[in-house]
Amino acid sequence: MTHIATRAVGTSTARVDGPQKVAGLAPYAYEHPVPDPAYLVPLVSTIARGTVDRIDTAEAEAVPGVITVLTPWNAPRLTDQAEGEYVVLQSPEVLYRGQIIGAVVAESPEAARYACDLLSVEYTATDHDTRFRPDHPDAYTPEKANGGYPAEYERGDTDEAFSAADVVIDEWYSTPEEHNNPLEPHTVVALWDGETLTLYTSTQHPHGVVAALAPALGLDSSTMRVICPYIGGGFGSKGGPHAHDVLGALAARALPGRAVKFAVSRHDMFGYVGYRSPTASHLRLAARRDGRLTGIVHEAFVQSSHVTEFVEQAAVPLRNLYDVADVRTIHRAVALDVPAPFWMRAPGEAPGMFAGEVAMDELAVACGIDPVELRILNEPEADPETGKPWSSRRLVECLREGAERFGWDPSDRSPGTRSDGRRLTGTGVAVATYPHMVQPGSQASIRYRGQGRFQVRIGAADLGTGAWTALTLIAADALGVAPEQIDLDLGDSALPYGTVAGGSSGTSSWGNAIVAAAGTFRTRFGGTPEPGDEASATAGENSDLESYTAASFGAHFVEVQVDRDTGEIRVPRMFGMFSVGRVINPRTARSQFIGGMSFGISMALFEESIRDPRFGHVLNHDLAEYHVPTHADIRDVDAAWLDEDDFHATAVGSRGIGEIGIVGSAAAVVNALWHATGVRIRSLPARLDDLL
Ligand code: MOS
């Protein structure tokens, strides 16, 4: 596509929002100052399926400071109930434990919480089923998986490939239910002014919240505004609104002119705001003795809900990662009495590539080939799914360069033979791939303010990962000025349309819009704009992406230590080598890579939401019992990338980087555990007792 000369892009730049952040001037949603707010605490169901027969509100209403108690019988009605996740307090039906069935609004959070505890509820409970299992009698094949991918895919004849194979790997791999857990929970501040609604909500997509909720609330999108300039971590669950946004809006409707504040508690972060489905993958690889893949069959079983269908696209990545003639991948889902799963940290790729890349390690062992060489041997020339050329696929260089920098030793691959005193040591590798996604429709406007300053406006969202800075650099280059001359506005649906900060697509999509707006601006005003001169544009279609397949790639190398006596696992070292096009801001990009790799360690060794089948809720619903790594668990984690431009992908030569660090990293840890101990982990998280 048409590209621009880059100067600021590619330079390591401190966050432009850093000074506001350290000075406490970068408010998260809940912190936006509003005069005299009321506070909301929700009541959630203690049954997993059935109906609420009665809620006794008298005691709660008598608590000093209580303003109102909402129930399924008195809550304002929604206009549109098409999307199950947004149907809040519209009927007494209970679809999962932890569903919002009421709320108290009070003058203080303490009064609201106390009063909420005084609500007494009568239910009629019916049988429920929250037990995820791949052989569930109600498992079905959906039409589509998340991301719009067809649930089923086939090329060639896999039966033939397997009957002719020298070597077959045929195993099950599983990943547990996991919850996003950004440090800033989901929060909302809702304020009605007549028929106009303003939501301050922690979201990866301000315009998306308007588009989703305006119809439900019976509003024209022009009378709803969503503001979110800063976010304390997104991880996917903030990619769309959830029940709390609807509840906040409904509660505030009864208090015209007065804001209602609602911070989802850490316990409820394991409830109605999305999570990663557990996955079970039946994966079969067929190969020749020399390690050349001849067939792949990946059946991925995932959990959906009766609230809305969500199908984690775990079987998608193996469709085009390796050069294989015969491939069949299929998703199967089962709707249980659970909340709706949603996006979490590379949905699809993260669990799917765990299965795929552990299976590849098993194939390397079965064929007696170095696992780095096995990947190189199966590298496709062109996209095997579509036959299109890659815009730039330098995975082999990631593997070779990464192996070199990490100090990979192909002559030392026998398992359970190295030690460092009482600890067994091992190394593992896995690759990463993530599609380069560009969402259509982002718009940007640019206005010259005089004195060399340009106002750039776009309704983008910064999860905390650095969009403020990356877009400043892109705008500077697009206008041919210095980054210091750019004043950026983002995080507000009143700004020109911004697409979602999700699918690693944000910077690509918004950047293209800014480049388009700058092109219009420069054409119109040349080098002599007057104060007030303004131009706006929508990101153009990138026709290159019709003739090329663009994706980001990477290779993870991990060293582990396992205590022989206790099984205690340590990850002293991890290195990721990436191919992602031009890196816009090396400083924040490195953080995204090593953050994603830390998620991989977390997925491999720590995270697991344990749902109690008797009651239907997540037992370990806090950060004491839902384990995430601490600083002591994350040691020498480093990332590097190839120097490249991909002008087929975006106008500044970049591809997406948000999720590539997450993909494959858990497999690399587990593959290193096999090398250290000879024990093959196929079910996450790996625990010390698995290794003894
Ligand atoms: Mo990301 S999990 O696509 O928000």
Q: How would you describe this structure to a colleague?
A:
The protein is an alpha+beta fold and 692 residues long. It has three domains: 18-28 and 441-541, 2-Layer Sandwich (Aldehyde Oxidoreductase, domain 4); 32-127 and 181-270, 2-Layer Sandwich (Aldehyde Oxidoreductase, domain 4), CATH 3.30.365.10; 149-177 and 275-436 and 547-691, Aldehyde Oxidoreductase, domain 4 (2-Layer Sandwich), CATH 3.30.365.10. The protein has 14 helices and 26 strands. The protein has helices spanning 18-22, 58-61, 109-117, 158-164, 206-217, 243-253, 349-367, 371-377, 395-406, 467-479, 506-525, 544-547, 586-605, 665-677; strands at residues 38-44, 50-56, 66-70, 93-94, 100-106, 120-125, 144-145, 149-150, 152-155, 167-175, 187-193, 196-201, 224-227, 260-263, 279-287, 293-305, 326-336, 419-420, 423-435, 443-450, 453-457, 486-489, 534-538, 551-563, 569-579, 636-641. The strands form six sheets. The chain has a seven-stranded mixed β-sheet with strand order 3-5-1-14-11-12-13, sandwiched between helices. It has a five-stranded mixed β-sheet with strand order 9-17-16-15-10, sandwiched between helices. Strands 18-19-24-25-26 form a five-stranded mixed β-sheet, with helices on both faces. α10 runs parallel beside α11 (506-525) and α13 crosses α14. The structure holds dioxothiomolybdenum(VI) ion. Dioxothiomolybdenum(VI) ion binds next to loops.
